[in-house]
Amino acid sequence: MSFLTVQNVHHSYFTPKSVTNALQNISFDIEEGEFISLVGPSGCGKTTMLSILSGLISPTEGKVLIDGRLPNSQTTSIGYMLQQDYLFPWKTIEENILLGLKLQNQLTAEKKEKTLGLLKEIGLSGIEMQYPKQLSGGMRQRVALVRTLAINPKILFLDEPFSALDYQTKLKLEDLVFDTLKAYRKTAVLVTHDIGEAISMSDRILLFNAKPGRLHKVFSVPEELRNLRPFDVRSKEAYSILFQEIWKELESLENDG
Predict the structure, then answer these.
(1) What is the CATH number of domain 4-76+155-256?
(2) Which pLDDT tens digit goes with each residue over 150-203?
(3) Separation CA 64–CA 27 (nearest Å)
(4) 156 CB-near residues (< 8 Å, 6+ apart)
(5) How many CB atoms lie within 10 A of CB 68?
């Protein structure tokens, strides 16, 4: 059985006067340690799919299992990295990164040491007693990554975590997140509008169609690219070929819409 399984998921939003079908008949599997990206035109239900995968909402029909359990189960450990870092401005960096462990009653001396060690690993030594406002956007996102990994989640959901950053910082952070997730052998699902980002970070890319959201096509990233850091992937011919292939599919979907 796959690590994450999506079985015939449909989802509709209801109002007193209308029904909007956001997702229709979606099924796919994700293996442990795999990095998957969800891409597609606006309104294709990527964020709705991520909310269902994470257990924030339950699908109207169908089901999702993570390691054999429902995602909203108390025993399913899930991490998030979002466009905003959502660090508490009145708490120090140390307090912020330890907050998840504290809320789950898992804060031990050993886990605190490990979490502070991860902060140093990603190049943020000596900032533990600083506050978020003293850091750049890229540094705050790195802190958010440490806070996410501190609880040792089974799977990470990344909802456009780099889109608010300048391009240079975005590229550096892509490499950092990629390296960190590979080192810790984490399973991850990324929602992005950036085809290049999806190719450079992923093992597979799921392209969604819109109105209602349907799984249109799955692209496998060539093996020669998967073992490279995202920055290096972008210079390879196989990257350009796959980019054009996905771009043409996306164009056809938008034209059909």
Answers:
(1) 3.40.50.300
(2) 888 889 999 988 888 888 888 988 998 898 888 888 999 999 999 999 999 999
(3) 9
(4) 78, 79, 80, 81, 148, 181, 186, 187, 188, 189
(5) 12
Q: What DSSP assignment string belongs to 122-190?
A: TT-TT-TTS-GGGS-HHHHHHHHHHHHHHT--SEEEEESTTTTS-HHHHHHHHHHHHHHHHHTT-EEEE
Q: Specify the length of the chain in residues.
A: 257
Q: Which tops the pLDDT comparison, 122 or 214?
A: 214
- What's the pLDDT band for 80 if we cut at 50, 70, 90? confident
Tokens of 162: 């780099």
Per-domain boundaries in the chain: 4-76+155-256, 89-153
Residues 6+ apart with CB under 8 A from 25: 8, 9, 10, 214
User: Max CA-CA distance within the chain?
Assistant: 57
CA distances from 61 to 104, 183, 246 (A): 31, 36, 29
Six-digit token pair at 190? 């990324």
